[in-house]
Design brief:
The protein has 1 helix and 8 strands, in the order H-E-E-E-E-E-E-E-E. It has one helix at 2-19, and strands spanning 21-39, 42-63, 70-99, 102-128, 136-165, 171-201, 206-217, 221-233. The two termini are 37 Å apart. By secondary structure, the chain is mostly beta strands. The model is unreliable at 1-19 (pLDDT under 50). Strands 1-2-3-4-5-6-7-8 form an 8-stranded antiparallel beta barrel. A hairpin with a 3-residue loop joins strand 7 (206-217) and strand 8 (221-233).
Amino acid sequence: MKKFLTALSLCAACVALNAAESYVSVGASYLNTRNELKDGEFDLGYHKANVGEAFVKLGKKLGNEKGLNSHRLYIAYAYQMPAKVKDVRASDHDKEDDYYPLISYRQADAKISKFEWSAHKVSVGYDWAPNISSNLKAFVGVYGGAARVSLDKKYTLTTSGTDYNIATGATTNVAKSSRKIEETSSQIRGFFGANAGLLYELSRNVAVELGVKAEFVEPELKNVGGSLGLVLSF
């Protein structure tokens, strides 16, 4: 009986989705993006830039389109354009006391010639979109998925410090050392976000969407911004 009810529920859900109105949304976002540069134990600060993003969504409208019971489910692809940080400096210090009786103090100074990142993002999302008036909706939603983040880093790191021996009380200075780092990488990361905004219907099949969003791409990339889209229903 349980198997029959489960199958019946799945069939009902499929029928509901097939009967629901579909839509496609294309648009662009303007994001303030922040990413952290790390080198081993040293955190070389969050660096930020303003970038554009292009997106496309394919979804289904569910529920009562004329009332509060209005919902949207969608899948989306977005390309976040390269953020570029150049010719900046950063510093950090680190303390290690794991090697008794030594305590190590280290200072790092970085001259960052280039730090760039971009992303291809695929996600699934849900919006609650109640009517405010006959042609105007509000929406609030959440989404999540996977992002392919490309990084390009080029900087010079100079380190110095002291070692303190607890047992003897002796202090030893560590000579300065410098090394150049050039690294290009691409990684798959999980991400999630939330959005909210307004949807104005120009006609039954055409609407303009204006919103804001915030998202977090693991482990340290953060995006906040606004978006403008054109929604076509069919």
